[in-house]
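Side project, low priority. Logging it here so it doesn't get lost.
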Amino acid sequence: MEGYTSDSSESDNQSSTKVLDFSYLLLDSATLSHNLEYTADDESNDPDTVETLLLYHNQLTVFPESILRFQNVKVLDISANNLSYLPESITHLTNLISLIARSNSLRDDSFPKNFSTLTNLRELNLSGNNMTVLPEPVLSLVGLKYLYVGSNRITSISTDIGKLTKLQVLYLGGNALGSIPIEIGNLQCLRALVLCENQLESLPSSVANLRQLKSLLLHKNHLTTLPPEIVSLKNLMELSLRDNPLVVRFVREMQYNPPSLLELSARTVKIKNVPFNDEDVPCHLLGYLNTAHRCVNPKCKGVYFDNRVEHIKFVDFCGKYRIPLLQYLCSPNCGDNPHALEEAGAETCNTERMKKVLLG
C-alpha cells in the first residue's frame, strides 16, 4: 500500500517537494515500515524530496526505522499511535524542524539522551502522553520555539526550563503542577504561556520578566492572588482567570492579630524618626529596626515589621481587566483614616475581622 503524496514547488531552487501521507490507515509498525521502504525504492519517487511525513492515527508500537530513508524530512507527525519510546535513530533526522508526537504512550524515560543533536528542531508537541516531568533530553533542545506538553501527568518543572530561552509558546495545561520555578522568567521571548487546569496556588514574581507575553492562561487552578509585578506586562492581551478561588470566592474573613509591644515601639521609633545609633540600641534591636516595611498606601507614612494586614486591591489591567493583587497594609484602618498612624505614632489594637475582597 502506498501513501498519498503531493508535490509543491520550492521558491528557492524550483525543485519538487512532497508530502507523504500515511495517516488514518491503521497500519501496524511492520506494514507501515514496509510501505515506507516501497515508496523510497520506487523509481518515480525521490525520498530526498519528501519534507513532510504524516503517520498519525495508525497502530505503531515501535518507531519505523525506514523513516530514516527520508533524510530531508522537516515535519514528522507520529501522533495518535501507541509509541512508548523514541529511538536514538530519530536523531539522524538532522533536518527535522517539527516533531509532533501527541497522544502516544511516551514516558519520562522515552527519549534518547542525545536528543539535543536535533539542532534544527523548533516545534515539539508531546501533549497527551504519560510524562510526570519534563525529561532532561527535552530540556536540552535549546533551539525550541514551540513546546506543547499539555494533558500529561507532569507534577513539577525542572529549573532547567530556564535554558529554553528561545521559546515563544509554552503549553503546560492539563497537568498536575503545584508550582512554577522562578527560572520561567528567563524565557524572555515567550509570547504565550498556558498553565490552565493545574494545581497552582501562586505564580513566581519572575513572570514580570516576560515582557513579550501576550497570552497568559491560568483558568482552573487554585490561585488566590497574583504577584503585583504582573501589572508590568504591558503587552499582555489575554488573561484567563476563571475557576480560581480568587474569582469564585468573593469575600473571605480573616482575623487580625494585634501587634506586639516590640513592634509598636519600633513603629513609633521609625514613624517619629527618633534618632538612634549603634551605641544606643542593642545589635538585635538595631537589626529589627532595619527590617521595617513601608505601608503600600501612598497616603500613609506608617511602617510594619512582622504584623501587617493582608489586603486585596483591584487594579485596572490592559484596559480590559480588573484583577486582585495582594498588598500589605500597616493597619486595618489605614484605608479609612490614612493619617491615623502619623498622628498617633502607633496603631491602636483592633480585633475586628477584616474582609478580604476578591474578584467576583
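Brief comment: Helices lie at 29-41, 136-139, 245-248, 261-271, 283-289, 340-344.
Revisit when time allows.
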